[in-house]
Amino acid sequence: MSLKNFWPQSFDNMGRTRGIKDKKDVPTEPDGDTQDGDQAESPAVDGLDPALAKALSVMTSNIIKVIDDKLSPLVETIHKNTTEIQAASKRLDEAEARLLAVEGSAETQEPRIVELEKQVSALTESLDMAENYSRRLNIRVVGLPEDTETGQPVEFFESWLPGVLKITTKAGRIKLERAHRTLAPKPDPNRSPRAVLLRFHAFRDKQRAMEAARRVSQDGGLIYNGAKVSFYSDFSSTVIKRRKAYDAVKQRLRERGMPYAMLFPATLQVTHGSSKKRFSTPEEVRAFIESLPG
């Protein structure tokens, strides 16, 4: 830093004036080398006194050193922060580019996802239909006390069914392929018994048994060994869940004395006067009941 920039111009002029005055008062020395080198160089420092010039130089150096000591950590911090900001900015740009790529890929994949969802739904429905088809020969007997069947279950139920349902057969037996309780641990005596699954040899025999069970139900139901026994077709869990959703509206239909029937897979047919109406959801049945007078 130049002393001209550090000190005011007026102070500089004052120093020069003083130097000129001093020159007039001091006799002129003969030319030649002097023993004091500092005194020889003093006229070159803008007319300042050599001691004052040296003091100013030391002061300037000290000020610069103090400023450097104070600013160096700040400069390092700024440099560090700048580097981190640049790195973060670079990562942000990369993330933004990846996000744009993902959004573009999602837009192209969305139609395919919709199509795959339709295929999965169709396959699920087909699988459920196949499962129900495999159960078409089955009947589920609910409420029969445990250990009612003696000996071989198949032989027992082949003769038990025609007797309790009053089905006429040639030999007093109806042919079954399998008969067993549901696959669950045997419950305690004070809990509900497990259901019995019966698989018929012929679909016609299964239909006859279900028709006989409906007649018995209309006559007050079947009571066996003090327990009420019911007969149901065996369906998949999906169909059972859909049918169970109608329980509340079926109760309201019974209170009104309106006959109904559940059609496969989960359609409720309601008889109203001389007409029959079919409903695909419980909400439709509820709206129909609320629209009736009374």
TrEMBL record:
Residues 1-45 are annotated as: Disordered. Residues 28-39 have a biased composition (Acidic residues). InterPro entries: Transposase_22. Residues 78-133 form a coiled coil. It comes from the Eukaryota. Keywords: Coiled coil. This is LINE-1 type transposase domain-containing 1.
